[in-house]
Design brief:
elongated; single chain; three-stranded mixed beta sheet; alpha+beta
Length: 147
């Protein structure tokens, strides 16, 4: 049940089980799906992915261990982009911050406006992002707190 992946010119050998950990909706799981290509072909050939092997290495390690280790020199935003490409962004988010349970959220602070009629509101979304509205300005942040 070995799979050989050539990612950006670097060879990775992993198991079908590890790629399956990516989840049914991911690109990696689709690559080994019987519907997409017969199992015998997956095991006998090298599959090429034209992406950066350094990021793939971190993501493959996450699928193997369930733990996320991001090297200090690796830009996190670029890793998130790669995880999105492979369809495993939720795995990265869960490994970094744990799963978000909206039922366990609590209000930790309230922010009031500075002037009469100055409406300020902050609302969290289920995916971990938030929306901040102040007066006529609205800022939307994703779960990485990038605007």
């Amino acid at each position: 049940d070995k799979v050989r992946l050539n990612v950006g010119g670097k060879l990775f050998v992993t198991s079908i089980t590890t790629l399956g950990n990516a989840g049914r909706g991911s690109m990696l799981s689709a690559m080994i799906d019987d519907i997409w290509q017969p199992q015998s072909r997956v095991c006998s050939e090298e599959l090429f992915i034209d992406r950066n092997p350094a990021y793939f290495s971190v993501l493959l390690d996450l699928l193997r261990t369930g733990k996320l280790h991001i090297p200090p020199t690796m830009p996190e935003k670029a890793l998130y982009r790669e995880a999105l490409y492979y369809g495993i962004l939720e795995h990265v988010r869960a490994a970094k911050w744990g799963s978000l349970d909206g039922n366990r959220l609590e209000c930790t602070a309230s922010i009031s406006g500075w002037a009469t009629g100055d409406a300020t509101a902050i609302r969290a979304s289920q995916d971990g992002g938030c929306c901040v509205a102040r007066g006529s300005m609205v800022h939307i942040y994703d779960w990485t707190m990038e605007e």
